[in-house]
Amino acid sequence: MIFLVADAARLLRAGYVLAREGVLSLVSPAAAPPLARPALRIARLIARRDAGSRSARFSAALSRLGPSYVKLGQFLATRPDVVGPTVARDLEVLQDRMPAFGQKLAEEIVTDAFERPVGEVFAVFGPPVAAASIAEVHKAEVVDPDGTRRTVAVKVLRPGISRRFTSDMASFRRLAAFAETTFAEARRLRLTSVVDTMARSVAMEMDLRLEAAAYTELAENTREDLDLHVPQVDWDRSSREVLTTEWIDGIKLSDKAALVAAGHDLKNIARIVMQSFLQQAMRDGFFHADMHPGNLFVDAKGRLAVVDCGIMGRLGLKERRFLAEILYGFITRNWRRTAEVHFEAGYVPLHHSVDDFALAIRAIGEPIHSRRADQISMARLLALLLEVTALFDMQTRPELLLLQKTMVVVEGVARSLDPQLDMWSTAAPVVENWIARNLGPVGQLQRAGVGLGEVGHFATEVPALLTRTARVMSQLDDATRDGIHLSPSSLEGIGRAEARGAFWGNAALWVIALALVGLWLR
Fold first, then answer.
1. Stated pTM of the model
2. Which of 3-7, 80-84, 306-310 has the highest mean pLDDT?
3. Is 144 an annotated catalytic residue?
4. Which residues contact 425 (CB under 8 A, 6 or more apart)?
5. Can you tell me the distance from the alpha carbon of 247 to that of 250, in angstroms, rounded to the nearest whole number?
6. Which of 90, 96, 290, 308 is catalytic?
7. CB 397: neighbour CB atoms within 10 A?
8. Are 186 and 16 in contact (CB under 8 A)?
């Protein structure tokens, strides 16, 4: 494949920045292919002497390279199967912070989005209070028709960001395709599929209407959860480029001193964080996948408030049952049942032995039960499970990787508030409630009802299906009664194709003949 000049220039710049910030120095020349070793030695010479820790190097390099690379780093943090667990852990702490693009540009974007001056949309439109790779956030005020004045958060998409991402994603895709045609390992990792998945995720983030819809769905799912608050969306002041939501007056979870000073119970907040995430994942199958401390607040009522629904995860019923049963299996030390769940979900090929797989799971579970409850990490457990299942030909499950990555963050937040938090006793009520509702007698009856409904729906469709089948058979009989006839356009197309084939076939024969004559004359 021939790279475009722009792709080569981007690749060279990225290589220089990665070398300068000390990222390439983390790679041992001895472990690299022979052709890459000289480049790695040069990279060590130009690396900064004060490059810092591994994670600091990745953060500095990707931030310098721009928004697309920051998003690439965050995405790869969810794919340890591609970059390895060590690099994935380094990328998990990558902060999505970029310089603000300014008040004037933001006001122009709002004016264009609503086709009226910013002063007619918002009574007050303040300066940016936060900025990331996709957008920045402004604090504003609106006046309702009844005269009520409300404070809102306005998220404004970066100008030209869609064009920038489209260009960078095209380059990433071409580089991935080149790598797959050159290296067997790249083909095994399906790098083009990785880039396509990331491109779809970023494309959804760049349409703020989809984030608004995510806010609304999350709010509907959790409306009866008294400990959780999701900001309300102002749809009249939201568009593709602008998202307006309720302003959250609260204390960030990262400010523990302020939480204590306000009289909040840190242990209770830690419990709410953990149980809220598990309820979203298991009960609703739709969870906030970016629950770092900057997106979590405690309001005056003691509720956990979540913001920034740009990255969300989904789990189907099969994945939720899988998660519930493996967690319950580890809680009850039922290794055989935990193994069977993997086979029932279709994650492990049937030619493997359930007993052998149960033995592998026991090897993970027994050491965990020998530790104190506050030392057990559910996220680490899921990581070990995914690692072991790879030995049994389990295919990569992106939704489980995103779940595991989010659980790492949630556990970190919860344990920063309560270092002695017992994850298992905290998770047990949520897991047991889900199992009782979905796998107990009530759940069995509900599934039976759904099954009968599907059978009834199919029965109503049978007459129409038979009618369409009879029509197709009649048309097929008419078409083949006197042999199969082709239309003039089809015959003309076949003729052109045959002519082209004959031309290139004759040309190839002439080339071979001339080559043979040349060899004979020599």
1. 0.72
2. 306-310
3. no
4. 373
5. 9
6. 290
7. 17
8. no
Task: Please state whether beta strands 242-246 and 149-157 pair in parallel, antiparallel, or not at all (unpaired).
Answer: antiparallel
SS3 content of the chain, % helix, strand, coil (to 5): 65, 10, 25
Beta strand extents in 221-335 (DSSP E only) = 228-229, 242-246, 250-252, 286-288, 296-299, 304-306, 312-314
Burial (CB < 10 A; 0-12, 13-18, 19+), residue 476, is: exposed
Q: Which amino acid, one-letter code, is at 149?
A: R
Residue type, 50: D
Measured CA to CA, the distance from residue 506 to residue 450 in angstroms comes to 64
Q: Which of 268-272, 357-361, 470-474 has the lowest mean pLDDT?
A: 470-474
Residue whose entry in the numeric block shows the structure tokens 């995510």: 214
What is the chain's length?
A: 522
CB 379 within 8 A of CB 404: yes
Contact status, residue 324 vs residue 282, Cβ threshold 8 Å:
yes
> What gap in Å lies between CA 499 and CA 240, rounded to an integer?
51
Question: Residue 89 and residue 97: Cα distance in Å, rounded?
Answer: 19
The alpha carbon of residue 25 and the mean position of all alpha carbons in its chain are separated, in whole angstroms, by: 28
The CA–CA distances, whole Å, from 40 to 8, 26, 28, 29, 54 equal 18, 9, 8, 6, 16
Torsional sign, CA 96, 406, 379, 385 = negative
Residues 82-131 have pLDDT tens digits of 666 677 766 766 666 677 888 999 999 999 999 999 999 999 999 999 88
